[in-house]
Specification:
The chain is mainly alpha-helical.
């Protein structure tokens, strides 16, 4: 013999039927506390520090990236002059003589 019983319950009713505790008030308090803490910590975030963390090399990295793109574009176009490299003194295109 087989007996099937279908019960149509909401999640709240199923928890009560099984004797499980209602955690919704605790969850609401935790969410409110998290929102409060996040809102207070947003004032400490400095956009400049975030950018520095993401791009540690700064402008030098941007120049290197531009040089890379320039070189790839010239290669794709069939050659041409490469951009002059900077020496340690920051001057372009000069050769040091001994």
């Amino acid at each position: 013999m087989k007996v099937t019983i279908d019960v149509d319950l909401t999640p709240v009713e199923a928890r009560r039927l099984m004797g499980l505790p209602d955690l919704e008030p605790m969850q609401q308090r935790l969410i409110a506390e998290l929102e409060k803490r996040m809102a207070s910590n947003l004032s400490y975030i400095d956009p400049e520090q975030i950018v520095k963390a993401i791009m540690p090399v700064g402008a030098q990295g941007l120049e290197q990236f531009q040089g890379l793109l320039w070189g790839m574009a010239q290669t794709a176009m069939g050659g041409g002059k490469k951009p002059a490299k900077k020496d340690d003194a920051g001057k372009t295109g000069t050769k040091k003589e001994s």
